[in-house]
Amino acid sequence: MKIYKQNKKGFCSIIIVLFLAFVMAGIASGLLYLNNLPPISELKNFQPTLASQIVSSDGMVIKTFGSYKYKKVKIKQIPDNLRKAIIATEDKNFYIHKGFDPIALIRSTVSNLVAKKVVQGASTITQQLARILFLSSERTIDRKIKELIIAYRLEKTLPKDEILEMYLNHVYLGEGAYGVSAAAELYFNKNIEDLTLSEAALIAGLPQAPSAYSPYQSMEKAKARRAMVLERMVKMNFITEEEAEKANKVEIKINKAHRPYALNKAPYFVDLVMKELQNKAGITEEEIIHGGYKIYTTLKYKYQKTADESVSSNIAKWGFKKPYQQVALVSFDVVTGRILAYIGGKDYYESQFDRVSLAVRQPGSSFKVFVYAAAVEKGLTPQTICNDAPVGIGNWRPRNYANKYRGKLPLYKALAYSSNSIAARLIQEVGVDSVINMARRLGITTYLAHDPTIALGSNGVKLIEMATAYGTFANGGVKVEPYAVERVETSNGRTIYQAGSNYKRVMDTRTAAYMVEMMEQVVKMGTGRAANIDRPAAGKTGTTDSYKDAWFVGFTPNVVTGVWMGNDNNTSNGGLTGGTAPAMIWAQYMRVVEANNPIMGFLYPEITINDKDKLDTESLNSDGLVTEEGINPDEENTIETTKETDIIKQQSEQLNKQYNQGSPPHPKTAGPPIPEPEYTPPVPPLPDSKAPAGSTGF
Question: Which residues are catalytic?
Answer without folding.
Answer: 90, 365
